[in-house]
């Protein structure tokens, strides 16, 4: 069994892994950059190692620094989390060379699936349907444009090393193609260090359905059913759920079979996800699905699968990486009830979803039945500008989809986060939308019918809010009178007794 | 008439005609934040900045003069214009990267680039003028 695990990540996923380690009695080592000295993932671990400046390239993305940190801290294994180095084959190989257990698939599998072009070829050979498209040998702007013309507009130009929507652009016509190709290439080069592009035909109004798979060293490959992640904004998932309302038992068995086949074809180990696009435009019974990509890591949305299967994916990752067989096998794995996850981001939907950086002046997670919150912050935390702006994931579980939606909605309405703008009100509007309620959302929803949900006019400030603000401001100025002028942040203990100013507030 | 009771650090119960609302408040008098029922309210004495990436953060100092900046702390990825160049409304002046997202900073109007106050790789704050147009 792994003795001491270094978590090469930050935020909520680092905490998620640390908690699984606690349960298994595995010691933990956190790493942190200058921006994260006081981050919760650091204090939650048994040990911590400073790995460099705030810029991710010199800290969380530095293979050398992380492998060094593992060596100096005496770790025997590394969990990459998601994002950062999690799908970097060179990093996995460096861990292997350093004699560290990499919690994930072998570096060769990551490399193969990391090249979306190679992955497409492999899946085609294995008989898994792929999205029609082509990978041009001529990687010039004109070469890619020529392939796009052949594939047909609208087309998607995508980074071979990409994923999660980075380095991907839609081309609707030849006129804006060159700019889109250049943007995709530049984004791909800066995000993945590889500007190789390929072109796929746009599947109209597809649903995004993915299958969680898991493989061990004993030839066991299982699936943990599907997740639907069709609520996306610019290819970034916003809301995820399991089961998917469009997946019939027959489609489920076809898709999960294909996913297991895909995992076997690439010699997969540990937890992974096979993403598909589902074309449901032909109506029930005629759905077609296409392999999109394979994610060779833990997914952000893994909790919805954990909620409906009752299984702990991260714990199983650690067991399988330690060389143990999978703790559960297919006939015993079932899908029960419904789970929905909403990603709470520090971003401002009314200003083009600008990421927000700043201090969480107030942060109180709601506690209620059927609600799980995976977060990596606490009150007073700084949201640094350098990293992804995910604050928390709120996961609601209930017997039915409607109940789960109602639960999620209640939880989000009771989740105060102050100091930065968040997308909570936007999430609530999505959950309220008739198309979402009816389960009729495809991946273009937030760009079409749902686009207006971002631009809602700010609601009028209710009198109750104005009253509470006034009370707060006056208690601050009173308490400040008794403090030295340089004390900027009021000490709650020093606030005067609230009973003393129970004054009536008049409208 | 409404009564406001502090029921915890930053938590207020407001009662108005028998109806109770819990409101969370934080910040300082010049920069107050409040939350109730899924909605955030922010009252700030500082200017709110622009509504979209790339619009001028500061309104025109004088007619036809624009000072364009980043909407948040960001790294300049690419400078696409040079002084003296004519730009049209909506043209991309700069690409900046913040939180792993690339954002185009666009011209707010047809104008001539008067000055560029940043270089590729600069980490810039939102109060800094990056491009002057006139």
Short précis:
With 507 residues, chain A is of the alpha+beta class. Chain A has 15 helices and 24 strands.
Task: Please tag this protein with its features.
heterodimer, A: 507 residues, alpha+beta, Rossmann fold, D-amino Acid Aminotransferase, Chain A, domain 1, Dna Ligase, domain 1, eight-stranded antiparallel beta sheet, five-stranded parallel beta sheet, 32% helix, B: 134 residues, mainly beta, OB fold (Dihydrolipoamide Acetyltransferase, E2P), 2 domains, five-stranded antiparallel beta sheet, four-stranded antiparallel beta sheet
Plain-language structure description:
The complex is a heterodimer of chains A (507) and B (134). Chain A has an 8-stranded antiparallel β-sheet with strand order 14-13-10-11-12-15-22-20. A 5-stranded parallel β-sheet of chain A has the order 3-2-1-4-5. Chain A is globular, with a radius of gyration of 24 Å. Chain A has 507 residues and is α+β, with helices and mostly antiparallel strands. Chain A has 15 helices and 24 strands. In chain A, helix 4 (89-97) packs antiparallel against helix 5 and helix 12 (401-413) packs antiparallel against helix 13. Chain A has helices at 11-24, 40-44, 63-73, 89-97, 107-114, 116-125, 141-151, 177-192, 249-265, 302-309, 313-321, 401-413, 424-432, 434-437, 463-481, and strands spanning 4-7, 27-33, 47-52, 77-79, 101-102, 133-134, 155-163, 166-171, 197-201, 207-215, 221-233, 236-242, 270-279, 288-295, 338-345, 347-348, 354-355, 358-359, 362-363, 371-375, 382-383, 390-398, 417-418, 504-505. The termini of chain A are far apart. Chain B has 134 residues and is an all-beta fold. Chain B has a 5-stranded antiparallel β-sheet with strand order 1-2-3-4-5, with no helix packed on it. Chain B has a 4-stranded antiparallel β-sheet with strand order 6-13-11-8, with no helix packed on it. In chain B, strand 1 (2-8) and strand 2 (11-16) form a beta hairpin. Mean pLDDT of chain B is 82; it is low at 47-61. At the A-B interface, helix 8, strand 17, strand 23, helix 13 and helix 15 of A face strand 1, strand 2, strand 3, strand 4 and strand 5 of B. Strand 24 of chain A pairs antiparallel with strand 1 of chain B, so a sheet runs across the interface.
């Amino acid at each position: 069994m792994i003795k001491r695990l270094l978590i090469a990540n930050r935020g909520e996923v680092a905490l998620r892994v640390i908690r699984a380690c606690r349960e298994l009695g595995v010691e933990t080592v956190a790493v942190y950059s200058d921006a994260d000295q006081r981050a919760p993932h650091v204090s939650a671990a048994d040990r911590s190692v400073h790995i460099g400046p705030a810029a991710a390239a010199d800290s969380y993305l530095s293979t050398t620094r992380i492998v060094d940190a593992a060596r100096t801290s005496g770790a025997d294994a590394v969990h990459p989390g998601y994002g950062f180095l999690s799908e970097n084959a060179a990093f996995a190989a460096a861990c292997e060379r350093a004699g560290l257990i990499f919690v994930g698939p072998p570096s060769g599998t990551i490399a193969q699936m990391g090249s979306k072009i190679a992955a497409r070829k492999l899946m085609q050979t294995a008989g898994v349907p792929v999205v029609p498209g082509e990978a041009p040998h001529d990687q010039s702007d004109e070469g890619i444009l020529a392939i796009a013309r052949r594939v047909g507009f609208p087309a998607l130009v995508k980074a071979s090393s990409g994923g999660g929507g980075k380095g991907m652009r839609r081309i609707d016509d030849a006129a804006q193609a060159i700019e889109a190709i250049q943007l995709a290439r530049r984004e791909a080069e800066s995000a993945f260090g590889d500007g190789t592009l390929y072109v796929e035909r746009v599947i109209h109004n597809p649903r995004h359905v993915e299958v969680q798979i898991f493989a061990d060293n004993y030839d066991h490959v299982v699936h943990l059913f599907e997740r639907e992640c069709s609520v996306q904004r610019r290819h970034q998932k916003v809301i995820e759920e399991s089961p998917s309302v469009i997946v019939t038992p027959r489609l489920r068995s076809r898709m999960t079979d294909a996913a297991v086949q895909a995992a076997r074809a690439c010699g997969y180990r540990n937890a992974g996800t096979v993403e598909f696009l589902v074309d449901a435009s032909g109506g029930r019974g005629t759905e077609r699905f296409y392999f999109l990509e394979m994610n060779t890591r833990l997914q952000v949305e893994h909790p919805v699968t954990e909620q409906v299967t009752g299984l702990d994916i991260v714990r199983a990752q650690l067991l399988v990486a330690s060389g143990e067989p999978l703790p559960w096998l297919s006939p015993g794995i079932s899908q029960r009830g419904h789970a929905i996850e909403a990603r709470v981001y520090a971003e401002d939907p009314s200003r083009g979803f600008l990421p927000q950086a700043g201090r969480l002046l107030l942060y109180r997670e709601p506690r209620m039945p059927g609600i799980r919150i995976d977060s990596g912050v606490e009150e007073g935390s700084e949201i640094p500008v350098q990293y992804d702006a995910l604050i928390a994931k709120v996961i609601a579980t209930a017997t039915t989809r409607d109940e789960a939606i109602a639960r999620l909605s209640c939880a989000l309405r009771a989740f105060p986060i102050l100091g930065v703008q968040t997308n909570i009100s936007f999430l609530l509007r999505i959950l309220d939308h008739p198309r979402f309620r009816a389960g009729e959302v495809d991946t273009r929803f937030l760009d079409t019918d749902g686009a207006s949900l971002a631009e809602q006019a700010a609601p009028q400030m209710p009198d109750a809010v104005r009253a509470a603000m006034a009370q707060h401001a006056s208690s601050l100025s009173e308490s400040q009178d008794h403090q030295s002028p340089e004390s900027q942040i009021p000490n709650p203990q020093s606030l005067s007794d609230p009973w003393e100013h129970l004054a009536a507030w008049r409208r | 008439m409404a009564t406001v009771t502090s029921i915890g650090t930053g938590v207020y119960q407001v009662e108005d005609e028998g109806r109770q609302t819990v409101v969370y408040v934080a910040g300082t008098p010049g920069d107050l934040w409040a939350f109730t029922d899924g909605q955030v309210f922010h009252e700030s004495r500082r200017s709110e900045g622009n509504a979209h990436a790339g619009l001028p953060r500061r309104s025109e100092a004088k007619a036809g003069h624009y000072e364009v900046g980043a909407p948040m702390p960001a790294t300049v990825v690419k400078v696409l214009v040079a002084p003296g160049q004519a730009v049209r409304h909506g043209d991309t002046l700069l690409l900046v990267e913040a939180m792993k997202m690339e954002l185009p900073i666009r011209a707010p109007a047809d104008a001539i680039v008067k000055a560029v106050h940043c270089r590729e790789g600069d980490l810039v704050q939102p109060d800094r003028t990056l491009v002057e147009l006139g």
